[in-house]
């Protein structure tokens, strides 16, 4: 049809095609695109979970995206259909009576062959079948350079988020025109926001009981206008994790220091990770005062207030995130029930030398650009404990234009006074490296002495580091 329009065929051929289509509720645009004028209604008795054809799943996704709140049962069934189709095309068996979250997890593992490729794109590492590849494209996954683009309105994660654990709950969150696609981030499928159709999550309309077992990317705006992006998944007591400086959720996942799968699959646990201001998908501004430890701590407290739920919560952080949690805790100790402190930064006596390094880095970037800093970082010796990891990270997780301000803010920061930390009585897990001068063992050991409920583990090789995720999960269980 499109070829005929382009070639400007004569006679009445277009009418002969268009009129029957219009009778069936379809229309043909000037460019030859066929779309529904009157989408067919689905019989509520029709079970969509039996769909196995990618085109059929896509058609139902498109239909249901026009009224997500009107067919929650269909949303659940489409999640089930998608997961079972993936398992079928990968040659795996599935239990027809398995619950949807279990099927989703199995499908995620089956698609472990889909991983981030060069430059942050998604590439297929193993051959996919025609049907499987078509389903991946139709769900928004770039395959072979092609992507579904902004036209897709509902992916697996958005539907899972909508229905939570019960499809017919009246208190599930309302999302209009959801634009969350499921592709492959830290778990084999990544949830990414489509700016053209992403719902605003700057609202308190979410209900605590309607959390999804699948991570959903959300955001909210701090009082000073900075937007914070975060992942929110699971139900139950809340644990919040803050990453290190120069990193982000994505950069930390690529680094592989913390495998979050063991934590994410804990039953009855809500888990949130976020990008700090100026990092990852969050925004920032070129003011050094914005990047002092105290400012990051205030952001964390504001995020916790936004997230709602029961109190106290578990505070977790690495490096800068560790400092963030501790500053928040000394100001509001009743807010936290326990801590996970990963690679604590330089502090007190060792902080002055690190502050000088930050100031030199700020000058280097200001004078010679970000490339000069990344080249210097790449040439620095790698601690033996990190030698088995992709360290340093392939790319910075911070906005390049904000690097000088970030460095200056970090240079003016330190951990809270020792006497204040000694007043914290919460159980604490401290994970440290044996040989990283930027995150000295001495800081971790001092924190272990200061915090009455602390348990310290020091790793001297990458095998020990890779076990940290399981260790954290056992501590939280």
Automatic annotation (TrEMBL):
It comes from the Bacteria. Gene3D superfamilies: alpha/beta hydrolase. Residues 260-349 form the AB hydrolase-1 domain. InterPro entries: AB_hydrolase (IPR050471), AB_hydrolase_1 (IPR000073), AB_hydrolase_fold (IPR029058). PANTHER family: AB HYDROLASE-1 DOMAIN-CONTAINING PROTEIN (PTHR43433:SF5), HYDROLASE, ALPHA/BETA FOLD FAMILY PROTEIN (PTHR43433). This is AB hydrolase-1 domain-containing protein. The lineage of its organism: Bacteria, Bacillati, Actinomycetota, Actinomycetes, Kitasatosporales.
């Amino acid at each position: 049809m499109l070829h005929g329009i382009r070639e400007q065929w004569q006679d009445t051929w277009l009418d002969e095609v268009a009129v029957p289509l219009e009778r069936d509720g379809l229309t043909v645009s000037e460019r030859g695109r066929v779309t529904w004028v009157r989408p067919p209604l689905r019989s509520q008795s029709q079970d969509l979970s039996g769909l196995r054809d990618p085109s059929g799943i896509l058609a139902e996704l498109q239909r249901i995206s026009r009224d997500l709140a009107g067919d929650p049962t269909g949303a659940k069934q489409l999640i089930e259909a998608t997961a079972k189709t993936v398992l079928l095309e990968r040659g795996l068996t599935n239990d027809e009576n398995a619950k949807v979250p279990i099927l989703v997890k199995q499908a995620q593992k089956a698609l472990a062959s889909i991983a981030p490729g060069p430059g942050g794109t998604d590439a297929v590492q193993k051959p996919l079948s025609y049907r499987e590849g078509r389903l991946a494209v139709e769900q928004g996954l770039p395959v072979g350079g092609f992507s579904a683009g902004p036209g897709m309105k509902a992916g697996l994660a958005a539907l899972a988020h909508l229905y939570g654990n019960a499809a017919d709950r009246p208190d599930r969150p309302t999302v209009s025109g959801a634009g969350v696609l499921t592709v492959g981030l830290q778990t084999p499928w990544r949830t990414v926001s489509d700016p053209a159709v992403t719902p605003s999550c700057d609202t308190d309309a979410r209900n605590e009981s309607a959390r999804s077992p699948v991570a959903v990317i959300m955001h909210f705006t701090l009082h000073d206008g900075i937007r914070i992006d975060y992942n929110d998944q699971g139900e139950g007591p809340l644990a919040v994790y803050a990453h290190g400086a120069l990193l982000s959720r994505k950069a930390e996942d690529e680094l592989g220091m913390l495998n979050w799968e063991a934590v994410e699959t804990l039953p009855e646990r809500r888990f949130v990770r976020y990008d700090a201001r100026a990092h990852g998908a969050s925004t920032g501004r070129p003011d050094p005062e914005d990047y002092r430890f105290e400012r990051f701590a205030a952001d964390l407290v504001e995020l916790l207030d936004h997230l709602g739920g029961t109190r106290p919560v578990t505070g977790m952080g690495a490096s800068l995130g560790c400092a963030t949690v501790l500053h928040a805790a000394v100001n509001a100790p009743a807010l936290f029930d326990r801590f996970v402190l990963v690679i604590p930064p330089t502090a007190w006596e060792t902080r002055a030398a690190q502050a000088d390094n930050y100031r030199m880095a700020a000058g280097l970037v200001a004078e010679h650009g970000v490339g000069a800093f990344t080249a210097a970082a790449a040439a620095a010796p790698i601690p033996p404990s990190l030698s088995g990891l992709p360290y340093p990270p392939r790319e910075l997780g911070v906005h390049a234009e904000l690097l000088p301000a970030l460095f200056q803010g970090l240079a003016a920061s330190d951990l809270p006074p020792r006497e204040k930390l000694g007043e914290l009585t919460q159980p604490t897990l401290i994970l440290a490296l044996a040989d990283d001068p930027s995150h000295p063992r001495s800081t971790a050991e001092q924190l272990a002495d200061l915090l009455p409920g602390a348990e310290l583990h020091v790793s001297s090789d990458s095998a020990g580091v890779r076990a940290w995720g399981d260790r954290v999960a056992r501590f939280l269980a």
